[in-house]
Design goal:
This protein is mainly alpha-helical. It is built from 14 helices and four strands. The radius of gyration is 27 Å and the shape is elongated.
Length: about 280
């Protein structure tokens, strides 16, 4: 009875104990890497097939993947650790051995954060389902594109505030940075935006934060966010900056040293000095 049960399990497609073949023999380093890449590709194909079975006719694999991820990523961080990735596989019916699950996880995980960016992985499978056809664009759009609509909404509010709009936002973002690391959490970011008068929906806040949280470690660089909101200098402002730089660069060396700056700085014009 025991041997019959073992044979029955062994015949089940994609069972957790499935043996994908004998372990590769020890070979030169390049050949070993090639064998490992082929093995991981086989694991990825196994996941892709299970995902394909769960994808509805009017969807693509990217959308199907995100649906499963959202069920697991209850905090909506946009990143998956090994346990969550294992839950995603299980919910898809893709039962791999623990060591194979870890290999596949490491294949998709970001080196810095050690987690998988959910949207990048979903986009990968969305594109994979369409093969190499450059004329077909999957319906799933990876959210790595800048949230321009939300950024424009923030810019509009800042312009209404006048010259103190950008300064005020920068001051609040720095105030939210309790650790002094120049990085802030999702909660701190939401607080700063609200305090500066930005009325944003929770989905807009999430869109913004997830975009700037590049390595999915739960914090963002507020300086990077400020640069994105400020945008590039217009041509007139660039000309003004270039003109000022040339005036300060009295030696014509292409750089400004402190001595040159000190010679041109009129301390008597400073508001605190003028008031005294």
């Amino acid at each position: 009875m025991g041997s019959f049960f073992n044979e029955l399990l062994a015949g089940c497609w994609n069972f957790a104990g499935t043996d994908f073949g004998p372990a590769p023999e020890l070979k030169p380093e390049e050949e070993e890497d090639d064998e490992e890449a082929k093995y991981i590709a086989m694991l990825e194909d196994t996941l892709s097939e299970k995902l394909r079975q769960r994808t509805k006719t009017k969807e693509d694999e990217g959308k199907a993947m995100m649906k499963v991820i959202r069920y697991v990523d209850t905090s909506n961080t946009g990143a998956l650790d090994l346990k969550q990735f294992t839950d995603v596989l299980r919910n898809l019916g893709c039962l791999l051995r623990p060591d194979d699950t870890k290999k596949l996880f490491c294949h998709f995980a970001d080196e810095d954060s050690g987690k998988i960016c959910a949207e990048k992985m979903a986009n990968h499978f969305a594109l994979k389902s369409f093969g190499e056809n450059p004329n077909v664009v999957p319906k799933f759009k990876v959210a790595a594109e800048p949230p321009n609509q939300v950024l424009q909404k923030i810019k509009k509010t800042l312009m209404e505030k006048g010259i103190n709009g950008m300064r005020g936002m920068g001051r609040l973002l720095r105030k939210a940075d309790k650790s002094g690391s120049k990085k802030i959490s999702r909660h701190e970011f939401a607080w700063a935006m609200k305090e500066n008068g930005h009325v944003l929906a929770s989905s807009e806040l999430e869109r913004l934060f997830n975009y700037f949280d590049r390595n999915k470690d739960g914090v963002i660089s507020y300086n990077e966010f400020i640069r994105a909101v400020r945008g590039d200098l217009g041509e007139k402002r660039k000309e003004a900056v270039d003109h000022l730089f040339k005036q300060l660069d009295t030696s014509g060396a292409g750089e400004i040293n402190l001595g040159e700056l000190a010679n041109l700085y009129a301390v008597e014009s400073h508001p605190k000095v003028a008031r005294s």
